[in-house]
């Protein structure tokens, strides 16, 4: 063999993979797509160089353990950032000092690419499964079921006077150095009456851009995390939402 010859990685064409015997068998789906297990195998074995797949440094067992630790943090709403996750990797057992030096930000980004069960938003880990469950699998089916019950029991939605709130956490994507959280809480009554939305800013004082918001639509408050806490929630409900609902009930001739 010529010493100057450089071996070329043979990448199987996608069509060849899809039409191969391992892909077409009894457990393929109605859309002709094989199981996730086989898909991951194909991605691992037949990917182009330089796209995905860097030195893992950790064993499969160690990576699985790190994923479990991240999930524990997520379940307690302590969403770790990259530095937190790197520190968690350093704390794993049987990690040599040489390996620790290589467990840096670049390695963590590659780790995230390999583990698609996590959604990574502005340096925070989020649990995709939990996010989807709270919207597609809970909220939308519940609303459909509620409409069914109201129709079945012949209840006029105008007769419902309860209220509910929902919060949306927003990350500022313009700043990659620091993590800023802003939470928007929207509240409405069962009648469909919209109340002022509460904006929770991660700051010591209200930034100028938030001061320009329409005061008839928004209430802006600050705290040290930018998340909805028991303090901000109680302040919003006790000092604004509940009195406003009571006022509207009185104006509509309904006793409080």
Radius of gyration: 26 Å
Class computed from helices, strands and strand pairing = alpha+beta
Fraction of residues in helix:
40-55%
Count of β-strands: 6
Largest sheet: 4 strands, mixed
Mean pLDDT across all residues, rounded?
67
Give the end-to-end Cα distance, rounded to a whole number of Å: 91 Å
- Unreliable stretches, pLDDT < 50, 5 or more residues? 1-36, 46-53, 127-131
Number of helices: 10
Order of helices and strands: HHHHHHEEHHEEEHEH
How would the global form be characterised?
elongated
**Strands ordered across the widest β-sheet:** 3-4-5-6
Strand content: 5-15%
The count of domains is: 3
Folded structure, characterized:
This is DDE-1 domain-containing protein. With 256 residues, the chain is of the alpha+beta class. The protein has three domains: 1-50, no CATH class; 53-155, no CATH class; 156-251, no CATH class. The protein is built from ten helices and six strands; from the N terminus they run ααααααββααβββαβα. The chain has helices at residues 14-18, 36-46, 60-75, 82-90, 97-102, 105-114, 128-133, 139-152, 208-211, 230-251; strands at 118-121, 124-127, 163-171, 181-189, 197-202, 218-223. The strands form two sheets. Strands 3-4-5-6 form a four-stranded mixed sheet, with helices on one face. The protein has a two-stranded antiparallel ribbon with strand order 1-2.
């Amino acid at each position: 063999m010529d010493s100057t010859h450089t071996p070329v990685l043979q990448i199987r064409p996608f069509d060849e993979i899809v039409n191969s015997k391992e892909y077409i068998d009894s457990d393929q789906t109605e859309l002709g797509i094989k199981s996730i297990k086989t898909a991951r195998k194909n991605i691992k074995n037949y990917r182009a160089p330089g796209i995905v797949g860097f030195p893992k440094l950790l064993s499969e067992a160690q990576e699985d353990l790190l994923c479990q630790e991240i999930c524990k943090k997520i379940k307690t709403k302590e969403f770790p950032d990259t530095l937190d996750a790197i520190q968690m990797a350093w704390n794993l057992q049987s990690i040599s000092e040489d390996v620790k030096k290589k467990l840096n930000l670049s390695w963590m980004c590659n780790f995230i690419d390999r583990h698609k069960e996590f959604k990574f938003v502005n340096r925070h880990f989020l649990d995709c499964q939990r996010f989807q469950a709270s919207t597609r699998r809970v909220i939308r089916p519940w609303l459909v079921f509620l409409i069914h019950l109201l129709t079945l029991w012949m209840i006029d939605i105008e007769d419902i006077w309860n209220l509910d709130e929902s919060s949306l956490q927003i990350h500022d994507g313009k700043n990659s150095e620091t993590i800023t959280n802003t939470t928007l809480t929207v509240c409405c009554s069962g009648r469909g009456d919209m109340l002022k939305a509460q904006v929770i800013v991660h700051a010591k004082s209200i930034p100028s851009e938030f001061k320009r918001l329409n005061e008839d639509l928004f209430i802006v408050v600050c705290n040290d995390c930018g998340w909805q806490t028991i303090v901000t929630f109680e302040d919003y409900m006790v000092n604004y939402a509940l009195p406003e609902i009571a006022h509207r009930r009185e104006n509509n001739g309904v006793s409080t």
